[in-house]
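Pipeline run #58 for the internal structure catalog. This entry was flagged by the ingest filter as a single-chain record with no existing model, so it goes straight to prediction. Upstream metadata was stripped on purpose; only the residue string is passed forward. Reviewer on rotation: M.T. Logging verbosity set to normal.
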Amino acid sequence: MLSSLLDRPVVLRRAALASLVANVGIVCTGGLVRLTGSGLGCPTWPRCTEQSYVTTQAMGHHGIIEFGNRTLTFVLGLIAVVALLAAWRQRRRVPGLLAAAVWMMAGIAGQGVLGGITVRMALNPWTVMAHFLASMLLIALAYVFWHRTRDVPPRWTAPAAIRTAGILVTAVSAVVLVLGTIVTGSGPHSGDTKAARTGFDPATVSQLHGDAVFVLVGLTLAMWLGLRALGAPLRVTRAAGLLLLVELGQGVVGFVQYFTGLPWPVVLLHMLGACLVWTATLGLLLSVTPRKEPARQPAPVYEGHSEASTA
C-alpha cells in the first residue's frame, strides 16, 4: 500500500512542494525567534536546558518560541524523508531526482548542527548569518527538486546572452542576500540582549544593501525587456515579470522597515520577501537554463493487451 502510494508522481510533486514551503516557513519561524529576543530561549543544544530536552515553565515564552522552532526541524525532516522515499521509488522515471533528495536530507542535518553551534556561540552574528544563508541554500535545493518533479512544456533554447543574464541576476540576488544578513547582524534585532553585533555602521551597510537591490532590479528589468524583444515563450517572460514584481514589493517593505525604526512584524515580512525573491530568481534561472530531458519510460504492456489493441 505504501509503496504504491510512493510510486505516484502526484505524491512526489506534493512532497517536493511541501518541502519547499516548509523550508521557507522555518526561515520565518527562525526570524520570529530572533525578532522576539528568543534566540537563547533554550540556552544550550541539543538539550533545551542542561537538565531537559524540552522547554520548561521557567523559560517562559522565549523558551516556547525557541523550542517550537527546533521542533519544526523534525517536521521538515519528516517531509524530506517522504520526498526521499518517493524519489527513490521513481528514480528511473526522473533521473537525477534521487541525488537532489539526498542532498536535501544532508542539508537539513547539517543545518540542525549549525543551528546548535549558533546557540552555543551565544548568537554570534557571523554564525547567525551562516545559519540564514544555509537556509537559502536548502531553499534552492528544495526548489530545484520541486521543479524537476513538474510536468513542463517543451523547453525554449535561450540565446547565450540570455542564459548569461540569468546567471548574473542569480549571482546579484545572492549578493543581496549576503548583504542583507550583514545589515541584520549590524542592527538591533540580535535575538538576545547580550548577543554581539558585527560592529559595522548600520546606515552604511544598509546603503550598500540598497545599492545592490537597485542593481538587481535594473538587471531584472533589462532581462524582462530582452525576453519580450526576443519573443520568448510567455512562461519565460512571466518568470522575469514575476521576479520584478516581487523585487519591487520587497523594496517597498524594505523602505518601510527602515523609515519606521525596524518594527519586528515588518522585518519578519521582509524575511519572507527575501525567500520569495530568491525562489522567483531560481524560477527565472531554470526557465532559461537548458536541461537534459529525462528519457521517457515505455508504456506498460499487459498480457493480452497492447497499445495497438487499446487504440
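catalog note: Confidence is low (pLDDT under 50) at residues 294-311.
catalog note: Residues 60-89 form the longest helix (30 residues).
status: ready for reviewer M.T.
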